[in-house]
Amino acid sequence: MIHPPSLQKGDTIGIVAPAGRIDFTIIEQACLRIKQMGYKTKLGKYLNKHYHNFSATDENRKDDLQSMMDDHTVNAILCARGGYGTLRFVDDLNFDQITEKPKWLIGFSDITVLHAAFQKHGLASIHGPMCKSFLNYTESSADIDILFAFLEGQKPQYIINPYTKNQKGHTKGILTGGNLSLLYALRGTKYDLKPEGKILFIEDLSEYLYHLDRIMLNLKIGGILEKISGLVVGQFTEMKDNKTPFGENIDEIILKSVQEYNYPVAFNFPSGHIETNYPLILGDNTELTVDSNQVSLLSV
């Protein structure tokens, strides 16, 4: 998997909104923070052209992203927010220029679709904070600091606390995944998971427990969970239940789907729809170790 070149101070970060609409003041504040960190910004032409629930029309959103992918003066692409909409145009993107001169793509949630497309074309990308995370940036904003450390060439070296539901073990593989509902939406497409030799990361927001159970069963019956090398479970935020309780929490739903497999499973990784969203390099050669004392997720 190709890792784009590291950024240098003074490089340009392009900002696009390939899915949901966003308050432009959030973009402006993010630009200020990015400039304070020593980088230039370039905004998509249609970034503030609201169209219903989207940031702009499908064609305009696609054109903005395509322009940033093809623009050799842009060194990385930051997606402003997720929401919904990337799936509506991903198949129309042209990867000729960006595979010739790779650059980092940054985002999560609906941006999972783009991560899958980038990986299909052999490009690593960063599952990480988007524009809203820059609003409350302080010296203790670890996710933003780590994001820029990755952009500048540092490799992921995470050590996190143990968790009662963890499944012990050690493995190596290519890190992949993202938002679980979007991974489910990509099943059966050219962007579907290729599980062999992969460490799968999953997270989600505001889904019904029964729906997540359905997704995990789909991944199990479809052979995905059997073939992966390890599983990293991020944050499942604001999960919903029916009036009649489903009867299992998210940890139990996931664990019952993978407990028969002999690979490490790490729960409660601090990445997803949370205030401090630790970035991950998707497409990175990664080592996952889960034991009684800690979980380590390391670039190798």
UniProtKB/TrEMBL annotation:
GO terms for biological process: proteolysis. It holds the Pfam family Peptidase_S66C. The active site is at S109 (nucleophile), E203 (charge relay system), H273 (charge relay system). Residues 13-128 form the LD-carboxypeptidase N-terminal domain. Residues 172-288 form the LD-carboxypeptidase C-terminal domain. GO terms for molecular function: carboxypeptidase activity; serine-type peptidase activity. Keywords: Carboxypeptidase, Hydrolase, Protease, Serine protease. CDD domains: Peptidase_S66 (cd07025). Belongs to the peptidase S66 family. This is Murein tetrapeptide carboxypeptidase. It comes from Saccharicrinis fermentans DSM 9555 = JCM 21142. The lineage of its organism: Bacteria, Pseudomonadati, Bacteroidota, Bacteroidia, Marinilabiliales.
